[in-house]
């Protein structure tokens, strides 16, 4: 009857979101009077999950699962849920998880609610708060099925330390050829670059930057901050930046701690996708730009003057706080 | 190849979102409804398969009579036939079960759905549908080629792209990238006229449970005033981000 949590890792290392979903699972388990069991795939240092409230780890070590495979992972998780008799399953909001969660939902005949931003309102009935209408609203959604799957939004709940000692058990799901009917043939990922989904800070540029040749300063600012780079839709439509950087209602969602928008007007479709970020900073030479109404901090000024100064000041700040 | 494009009918992206009936319902007053943008990219890719590979393209929606203008628009863009399941799409599992029935009865090889509907952002219908029917599934799909029974799909992952090989029957959750923005089509007069002659079949829903129910909605708390920092005093911004917002 434990609460099951899928703790994602990459090349053996837990993702930051793994600790966040584990913390969330701990909270739900407390509410339900039970404990947390985590499932890991080829991860190292499983016992560290105890720091976030996990008391048991089902450790899957399987060479066929070194690259993510949605169907196979979902099948393995379904088997783990059955073995544990788990009725509540906590997952993240990563692209991989959003790929496997609906498969898991169908397999377990569950109710799935993604984009959850807070601990459950109540566990009987089971009600969670989630974003809806691309961050223009929230819904309080009841899950009435026996098995419940909750997808926690990035950075919404946060990782919380709960020292528990975690026992680690090997778990070997039964997987067949049918689980691998969709195969990865190539992964194209820029090494050493922070992805928008995992980033604490995102630096984003809009059409106000005039052309692709001016992105040097955006990249430099991102580097100083350890941030991911992003852009508005027209910027990717114009081919100034890759499509993977397009954020907003029809692009990637952003839920970072800090979002810096440079030369972006703040159209409703852009804001819808980035509003979940905690602190928003706008740099725009038009004081009437709508983004100023949605931001926490703003500088009215020419990006080509402000951004280099900001980079310089941040470098000084870093040198002092190193 | 027989393709079904699943279309959800959603508020236009510029819509102001309001709730009614004591915040228990989405207020559709004055809201313009459109084809879900992710589905529009999928439909446009389906038109490519129709024109280049002789595919037949049907569209399906689960929704009340008020969704018909949206479905007609899909026909005007070039889909051959439409199916409407006459039920309110209040839960993703319920919608997937309705669509599964359509796919089973229609013998489709490829189902193109969207990564998510921009209204309730469930992002679950295509994956549930694929699993119910034991079809292959690729989510956040940004490129799709079909050659006979084999398919090569590109999917967006966090921080990059992944190429996948799979086979029909297949369901995808698509998005921008399947085609480019500039490939999207605005229905012309001829398309609109032709759409009137095309079949729009209305079917009644099958029994299915609804594991989730939205009980109440709320709007985000209003934003406080923006704090403006002088362009000649950029250091102050660094201060505020460190000491006040505590984000650096
Ligand atoms: C269906 C649909 C979906 C959409 N989805 C998205 C989405 O997901 N994401 C998205 O971003 N957009 C989306 N859009 C587009 C959106 O409506 C806007 O057109 C877009 O966000 C504008 O991008 P921008 O702010 O970069 O450009 P602009 O609106 O052109 O704004 C440029 C800004 O830069 C400022 N500027 C100019 N020069 C300088 C300078 N030297 N220094 C500082 N500032 C300067 C200007 O004052 C202006 O505010 C969508 C639109 C539709 C119809
Ligand atoms: N009511 C519906 N009718 C038809 N297709 C739908 C409906 N709702 C969702 N879909 C399809 O499933 C995709 C994902 O939707 P959702 O799971 O609701 O976010 C959409 O882009 C559509 O392709």
TrEMBL record, chain A:
One of the entry's Gene Ontology molecular-function terms is: flavin adenine dinucleotide binding
- In this chain the Electron transfer flavoprotein alpha/beta-subunit N-terminal domain maps to 3-179
Keyword Transport among UniProt keywords: yes
**Any GO BP annotation:** fatty acid beta-oxidation using acyl-CoA dehydrogenase
- List cofactor names only: FAD
User: Per UniProt, what is one Pfam family of this protein?
Assistant: ETF
InterPro entries (UniProt xref) = DHS-like_NAD/FAD-binding_dom, ETF_a/b_N, ETF_a/FixB, ETF_asu_C, Rossmann-like_a/b/a_fold
Q: Where does FAD bind?
A: 207, 263-270, 284
Q: Which UniProt keywords apply?
A: Electron transport, FAD, Flavoprotein, Transport
Answer yes or no on keyword Electron transport: yes
According to the record, cofactor stoichiometry and binding are noted as: Binds 1 FAD per dimer.
Q: Could you say which protein family the record assigns here?
A: Belongs to the ETF alpha-subunit/FixB family.
Q: What's the protein name?
A: Electron transfer flavoprotein subunit alpha/FixB family protein
Biological source species: Flagellimonas alvinocaridis
UniProtKB/TrEMBL annotation, chain B:
Q: Which residues form the Electron transfer flavoprotein alpha/beta-subunit N-terminal domain?
A: 23-205
Keyword annotations of the record: Electron transport, Transport
List the record's Gene Ontology CC terms alphabetically: cytosol
Highest taxon of the source?
Bacteria
- SMART domains reported for this sequence: ETF
Q: What is this protein called?
A: Electron transfer flavoprotein subunit beta
Q: Which GO terms describe its molecular function?
A: electron transfer activity
Homology family? Belongs to the ETF beta-subunit/FixA family.
């Amino acid at each position: 009857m434990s609460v099951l949590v899928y703790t994602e890792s990459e090349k053996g290392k837990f993702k930051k979101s793994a600790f966040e979903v584990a913390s969330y699972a701990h909270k739900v388990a407390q509410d339900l009077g039970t404990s947390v069991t985590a499932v890991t795939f080829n991860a190292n240092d499983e016992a560290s999950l105890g720091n976030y409230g996990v008391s048991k780890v089902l450790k899957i070590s399987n060479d066929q699962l070194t690259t993510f495979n949605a169907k196979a992972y979902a099948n393995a998780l379904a088997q783990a849920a059955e073995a544990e008799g788990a009725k509540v399953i906590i997952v993240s909001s990563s692209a991989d998880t959003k790929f496997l969660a609906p498969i898991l939902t169908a397999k377990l005949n569950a109710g799935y609610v993604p984009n959850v931003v807070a601990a459950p309102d109540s566990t009987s009935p089971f009600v969670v708060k989630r974003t809806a209408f691309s961050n223009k609203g929230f819904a309080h959604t009841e899950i009435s099925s026996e098995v419940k799957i909750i997808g926690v939004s990035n950075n919404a709940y946060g990782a919380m330390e709960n020292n528990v000692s975690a026992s680690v058990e090997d778990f070997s799901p039964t997987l067949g050829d049918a689980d691998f009917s969709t195969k990865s043939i190539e992964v194209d990922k820029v090494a050493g670059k922070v992805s928008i989904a995992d980033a604490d800070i995102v630096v984003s540029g809009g059409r106000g930057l005039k052309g692709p040749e001016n992105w040097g300063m955006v990249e430099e600012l991102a580097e100083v901050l350890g941030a991911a780079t992003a852009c508005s839709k027209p910027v990717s439509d114009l081919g100034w930046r890759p499509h993977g950087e397009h954020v907003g209602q029809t692009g990637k969602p952003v839920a970072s701690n800090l979002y810096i928008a440079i030369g972006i007007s703040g159209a409703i479709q852009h804001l819808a996708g980035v509003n979940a970020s905690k602190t928003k900073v706008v740099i725009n030479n038009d004081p009437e730009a709508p983004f100023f109404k949605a931001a926490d901090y703003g500088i009215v000024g020419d990006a080509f003057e402000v951004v280099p100064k900001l980079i310089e000041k941040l470098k000084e700040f870093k040198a002092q706080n190193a | 190849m027989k393709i079904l494009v699943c279309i959800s009918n959603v508020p236009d992206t510029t819509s102001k979102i309001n709730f009614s009936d004591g915040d228990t319902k989405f207020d559709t007053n004055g809201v313009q409804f459109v084809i879900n943008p992710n589905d529009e990219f999928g439909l446009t890719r389906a038109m490519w398969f129709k024109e280049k590979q002789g595919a037949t393209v049907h569209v399906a929606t689960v929704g009340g009579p008020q969704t018909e203008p949206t479905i007609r628009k899909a026909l005007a863009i070039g889909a051959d036939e439409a199916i409407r399941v006459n039920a309110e799409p209040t839960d993703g599992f319920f919608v997937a079960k309705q669509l599964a029935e359509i796919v089973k009865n229609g013998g489709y090889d490829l189902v193109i759905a969207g990564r998510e509907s921009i209204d309730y952002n469930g992002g679950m219908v295509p994956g549930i549908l694929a699993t119910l029917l034991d079809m292959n599934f690729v989510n956040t799909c940004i490129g799709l080629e079909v050659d006979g029974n084999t398919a090569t799909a590109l999917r967006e992952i966090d921080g990059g792209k992944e190429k996948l090989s799979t086979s029909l029957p297949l369901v995808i959750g698509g998005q921008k990238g399947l085609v480019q923005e500039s490939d999207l089509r605005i229905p012309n007069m001829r398309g609109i006229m032709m759409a009137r002659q095309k079949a729009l079949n209305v079917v009644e829903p099958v029994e299915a449970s609804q594991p989730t129910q939205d009980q109440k909605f709320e709007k985000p708390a209003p934003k406080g005033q923006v704090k403006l920092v002088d362009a000649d005093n950029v250091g102050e911004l660094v201060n505020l981000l460190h000491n006040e917002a505590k984000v650096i």
